[in-house]
Fold this protein.
Amino acid sequence: WFSGRCWMFAGLNILRPYFINKYNLGPDFELSQAYLFFWHYLEQYESVLNLFYYEKMSEEEKRERLFNLLSDGGNWIIFRRLVEKYGVVPKKSYGESWQSKNSKEMNRRMSEMLAKDLQKCHEIKDSNENYEDFIQECLKRAERVLSLCMGKPPHGQIIIRCKSKIPQNFQSKLPVTVTTNIPLEDGIYDSPIDMFNDANRIYNIGKHVQLINDPRKKYNKWYKTQHQNLRAIPELFLNTNMDDIANVITMSIQKNIGVWFACNVNEDFSRKLQGMTKDLFRPDIFLDIDLKMSKIDRMKWGRARCNHAMLITGIQYERDKNKNNQIIPNQIAAFQVQNSWGPTGPGQGFYKMTKDWFDEHCYTAVVHHEFIDNLPTDDKIDEYKYYDFFG
């Protein structure tokens, strides 16, 4: 619809197969995006207030943040924080509202309210008034407005209705075998956190590592985000080359775990064809002009941006035409990508992304840390400035 929640859809689609397999559900089963959307706005509200109260920022950073106080958008870091804190619920337990699907008006009013609270926050900081009482009052008001827009999110017991009972000793297609000694019954969870923890035994979302490709910086080097002192868990990511990222993605797919990634869909991306490949569109030929720029130059001069997140769910290898089209190991031709724009079109919502497009327009991918060598062991890690981050 008209919201910027692709990063959330892609993250939830990592967890979704667990419940589909465990409870024999149909492919239309979804986890609620609106549920996380509610908490995303409330968490942003608190984070912005804390940032302006506790942190020292340059005037440039302040202006940029004030220009876009709240956003539908997010990244892997935000997704992980949300599911670990609030859990997940089925979409049937908390469906879409008009405001969750058309979020512009809600965003505008929430941002106006936050701007006024920031003004008061500044006054409190100068007068040494009690900030904790103030922020609790702000969050209570913000939660009330979000509830008016989207409804109150569910809490307490969550039930998933099993479509049919599964025979004894059912073997799933998940990364580890799920075996039951009795016919499977409906899923009953004490809370959204309980439901998330059930799937997270398999996926270990908190132990996923973010890989980035930023040719402006050194490869094979770890970085951390700014303002780490406001976070309980340091946010680290490894800058590396695209071939290494592709190889790690392959290992994850072989374990039946989808890979969250973010990219720029402004170039050579076709929603109609449900695919992306290098030089898919050639306006340079039509206009008789030279539009070619390297990846690093597009990043330096504002032509590149991370504006969409999806989930890699499969890999296609090159084939040797001289050997009866046998697969050529370790030579990736394309990736299968699950998008969040509905199960329509030639791929029924699954897109084909060629390796050359991936190399040019993908900037980050997230995999489990077991696939990464040499995790950092010291605290001497450079900060990755907020205005540089392609995440």
About this structure: The first strand starts at residue 158 and ends at 160. The chain is about 40% helix and 20% strand. The chain has a mean pLDDT of 88. Residues 342 and 349 are 6 Å apart (CA to CA).
